[in-house]
Amino acid sequence: MSEKELGKKWDRCLADGVTKLGTGLGLGIVFSVLFFKRRTWPITLFSGAGLGMAYANCQNDLRSHYLLHRSEKEQ
Amino acid sequence: MAARIWPLVKLATKVTIAGGAVYVACDSGLLGSSEQGSEALEKAKAAVPPALQDWMKYFGLEAQLPTMPKIEFSPVNSWNAGVRWTISSLSEAPTRASEYTNQGLQYVKDLIK
């Protein structure tokens, strides 16, 4: 993986992390206010889930360069 | 009769709002892959100035802020510049330290003479 490509992947990872954290926070606030009497745990749960999704995406993205993909296997 | 339906109506409203929020989040690609997330961010960034303009017109503040000043600040560049400065000063530190010690010793020797 060239350094430029790696840099772009890390940029995407960070942006994705921020996006998913924000989305999780927003959804957590919505659910906490509507269903769980404004407690804190849904907010932390959803934010954590968002961060976890971003982590998994980043992991897949960084690993994809070293994996054999289906289109190459057919050859 | 109304007393029995009202809690149901409240629950239905809450479920609709929560479901709508989840649907909007999933549909706009906020919960998808990294590329979709960055696409959504770009769309949001592009949509903010026109939305701001509309809001300002609505409140009649258009005369006060004619155009948003183009802020040329890039956090990425500042961070990278900071990292480069730190590493370069760390790598030059031993040389500079020995230089300063030599200069200090020379100064003291001159004083003693």
UniProtKB/TrEMBL annotation, chain A:
Keywords: Membrane, Mitochondrion, Mitochondrion inner membrane, Transmembrane, Transmembrane helix
Domain of life assignment: Eukaryota
Membrane topology listed for this record: Single-pass membrane protein
Chain's role: Component of the MICOS complex, a large protein complex of the mitochondrial inner membrane that plays crucial roles in the maintenance of crista junctions, inner membrane architecture, and formation of contact sites to the outer membrane.
The protein, known as: MICOS complex subunit MIC10
Pfam family, any one: DUF543
Family: Belongs to the MICOS complex subunit Mic10 family.
Native source organism of the sequence: Fundulus heteroclitus (Killifish)
Transmembrane domains' residue ranges: 18-36
GO CC annotation: MICOS complex
Record bears the keyword Electron transport: no
Subcellular location: Mitochondrion inner membrane
Subunit structure of this chain's protein: Component of the mitochondrial contact site and cristae organizing system (MICOS) complex.
UniProtKB/TrEMBL annotation, chain B:
Entries under InterPro entries matching the protein: Mic13
Any Pfam family matching the protein: QIL1
GO cellular component, one term: mitochondrial crista junction
Compartmental location: Mitochondrion inner membrane
Biological role stated in the UniProt entry: Component of the MICOS complex, a large protein complex of the mitochondrial inner membrane that plays crucial roles in the maintenance of crista junctions, inner membrane architecture, and formation of contact sites to the outer membrane.
Family: Belongs to the MICOS complex subunit Mic13 family.
Protein name according to UniProt: MICOS complex subunit MIC13
